[in-house]
Amino acid sequence: MAANYTLRVNGRSHAVRVDDPRTPLLYVLRNDLDLHGPRFGCGLGQCGACTVEMNGRAVRSCSIPVSEAAGKTILTLEGIGTPQKPHPLQRAFVEEQAVQCGYCINGMIMQAKTLLDRNRKPTEDEIRQALAGNLCRCGTHVRIVRAIKRASEAA
Ligand code: FES
Ligand code: FES
Hints:
- The protein is 38% helix and 16% strand.
- It has 7 helices and 5 strands; from the N terminus they run E-E-H-E-E-H-E-H-H-H-H-H.
- The protein has a 5-stranded mixed β-sheet with strand order 2-1-5-3-4, sandwiched between helices.
- One FE2/S2 (inorganic) cluster (FES) binds next to loops.
């Protein structure tokens, strides 16, 4: 049954209408709000490419029904920085050349952001643990960890 929701994304409210309340938040972000930072990887909650922040926690937007996201505070990659004023993590990922194809990077940055928000100076082990559920098929993990370390040192 069609339903209307208000989503609070990147500091703005958006009225959305969906055919099914179980529609994944990821679909609404990408297709209705034109936010393409979050990626569709597996669609099963297993890869992390679709990660966004919801009420301060990293969540997999492919596995969150839009009905559950309504009224919560949602932050996507687009909301944390701009090309002119990048987030320290975005800058560090560029400086460390941590990206190959880039498909996983939205998830890596959003997951890392929630880590740095609660632990400003994580050890390498803590970074690895926090990102253990985020997959990178290009195998650029070493540079990703280095970029997160660099961002934590810049903070
Ligand atoms: S697309 Fe959501 S976890 Fe893979
Ligand atoms: S950079 Fe290609 S999947 Fe991670």
